[in-house]
Write a structure and sequence with these properties.
Helices cover about 50% and strands about 20% of the residues. The protein has 14 helices and 13 strands. The protein has helices at about 1-5, 15-20, 25-35, 40-55, 60-70, 85-100, 120-130, 145-155, 180-190, 210-225, 240-255, 270-280, 295-300, 310-330; strands at about 70-80, 105-110, 135, 160, 170-175, 200-205, 230, 235, 260-265, 285-290, 305-310, 335-340, 345. Strands 6, 7, 8, 9, 10, 11 and 13 form a 7-stranded mixed sheet that branches. A 6-stranded parallel sheet has the order 2-1-3-4-5-12, sandwiched between helices. α2 packs across α4 and α7 (about 120-130) packs parallel to α8. The relative contact order is 0.11. GO terms for molecular function: DNA-binding transcription factor activity; transcription cis-regulatory region binding. Keywords: DNA-binding, Transcription, Transcription regulation. This is Transcriptional regulator, LacI family. InterPro entries: HTH_LacI, Lambda_DNA-bd_dom_sf, Peripla_BP_I, SBP_2_dom.
């Protein structure tokens, strides 16, 4: 096709010729020339190559347009359970932040894992990492997960963690201060409980370093300031609302003097459902993480007393901005930790 155009002496190639030579429509060439709408970088480059090959008089303008166009990068996000409203909200925030980038054109690729076992997460991490330029993940700390992160880093794919850190090196971390969160939850329960009693703790998994630190700090506050309360061994719900529901019912059944309950991880909807069903004889001061429809309603109904809320919009914007810097300028020598102030919501400010 290009030869047939260039072999016509005295004829000036037209935009139609460029379109035929590039294998695209005339409208696509027009969009590249006049910046009427976004065109994939690969397509624009093909249009330029065709224009230069046939001697199109506007090839110089096409090259300038191509130079002006932001670079396209794929950003991957590996989150936990798709059925969890919090992770759906986080997905929407990350997607919006990626599409709103100015310095480059970001394409979000969001995947969820319902099986949060280390082997599954590591396998999906490597699979997603092979298709993107940078990656942000929510994952429990485990040698298999850290090995997958190391493998991606060796291939030039930066990985940042969200919500909970990993013990291995990463390019950055974004979350809340779990030490302050745990102590805040303990302060709420010790102050709101009508009298000292038993206190229960439900965690997603102790391999989530954020959950572990929240629990450690929670217990530390009680040792220092409210020693008359008795803290039970924690129950792991694997971020599953069903297990959180069963664990909460069991705690209420076995401990008639249950004064407080803290859940620093996922499964909030299950805990709320169990507290509604149990109808304990005494009020159980309950604190959990994240505002979702179930926890918002529970605050208004008096089933929950406080919710520690992650600022997901700010977290998403800052995490995506760091990914953009990493994929454009290369990895930093050492990853940095960014702790955002959390919200504290009760029935009066919900």
């Amino acid at each position: 096709m290009i030869d047939s155009i260039t072999e016509q002496p005295g004829r000036r190639p037209t935009i139609d010729d460029v379109a035929r030579a590039a294998g695209v429509g005339v409208a696509t060439v027009d969009r590249v020339l006049n910046k009427r709408a976004r065109v994939r970088h690969e397509t624009a480059a093909r249009v330029l190559a065709a224009a230069e090959a046939i001697g199109y008089h506007g090839a110089g303008l096409l090259r300038r347009r191509l130079d002006e166009a932001p670079v396209e990068k794929n950003f991957g996000f590996l989150l936990q359970r798709r059925g969890d409203a919090f992770y759906r909200n986080l997905s929407a925030a990350l997607t919006g932040a990626t599409r709103g980038l100015g310095r480059l054109r970001g394409r979000p690729v969001v995947e969820f894992v319902d099986d949060i076992s280390a082997a599954t997460v590591a396998r999906q991490l490597l699979s997603l990492g092979a298709r993107v330029d940078g990656l942000a993940i929510v994952a429990a700390d485990h040698p298999a997960v850290n090995a997958a992160v190391d493998d991606l880093a060796a291939r030039g794919i930066p990985v940042v963690t969200l919500l909970s850190e990993l013990s291995g090196p990463v390019a950055g971390h974004f979350g809340i201060d779990h030490r302050k969160a745990g102590r805040t939850a303990a302060w709420m329960i010790s102050r709101l409980a009508r009298e000292p009693g038993v206190v229960g703790v439900l965690v997603g998994s102790h391999r989530f370093l954020g959950h572990e630190l929240s629990e450690i700090s929670f217990r530390s506050y009680f040792r220092e300031h409210a020693p008359r309360f008795r803290l039970l061994e924690s129950f792991s719900n694997l971020e599953d609302p069903g297990l959180a529901y069963e664990g909460t019912l069991e705690l209420v059944k076995r401990n008639p003097d249950l004064a407080g309950l803290y859940l620093p991880g996922g499964g909030m909807a299950g805990m709320v459902a169990a507290l509604r069903e149990a109808r304990a004889a005494r009020h159980i001061v309950a604190v959990c993480n994240e505002l979702i429809p179930e926890t918002r309603a529970a605050l208004l109904d008096g089933v929950l007393d406080a919710v520690i809320d992650t600022p997901i919009e700010a977290l998403a914007e800052r995490a995506v901005a760091m990914l953009a810097t990493l994929v454009s300028d290369g990895p930093a020598e050492a990853g940095s930790t960014h702790l955002l102030p959390f919200g504290l919501t009760v029935s009066e400010n919900v």
